[in-house]
Amino acid sequence: MSKFLICSPTVSILRVYKQGRLTVSAVQCSLSAMMIPVVLSTVLLLLLPGTLTQSFRQVPIDVVVENSLYDIKPLTFSTHVAYRGILLGALKGLMDTNANFKFTYSDNPNFGPYLESVNGVAGNDKDHTYWQLMVKTADGKVIIPDVGIGCYIPKANEQIILTFSKW
């Protein structure tokens, strides 16, 4: 048999166990009135699993694949990225949902992800080719970011341009 006693303005919980003739007073725990909102907030978060991790605001972007070196018509893919998410995540998501878009990258320990190939076309040192990242901003200006696919954070309605280029 258990009894609970709750007192205010502090919350005290006293549990008394009775077994036969032996009575044991168990742990007493006190919370100040200022801690109650913290405890209630924590309980609320526990009751709403996944609320903070499962829904992200999505930002629409287009990914354009250009390859004028091999006279291949540009392809445009509409996709999205999590708000303040990196381009690498958007490219992975696009590859997972669209069979016509594939890419590979390698992880450089000093400089981060390096885009190696798009749709089966890889850059190489012998031919001095690589995939260049450019961005057409919502106001129509084309820029070359000073970061790569692992750090660039697309904004809504930007056009990410992956251009097969020579250096």
From TrEMBL:
Q: What is this protein called?
A: Transcobalamin-like C-terminal domain-containing protein
Q: Which Gene3D superfamilies match?
A: 2.170.130.30
Its domain of life reads Eukaryota
InterPro entries (alphabetical): Cobalamin_Transport, Transcobalamin-like_C
The alphabetized UniProt keywords are: Membrane, Transmembrane, Transmembrane helix
**Pfam families, from UniProt?**
DUF4430
Q: Which GO terms describe its biological process?
A: cobalamin transport
Q: Name one GO cellular component term.
A: extracellular space
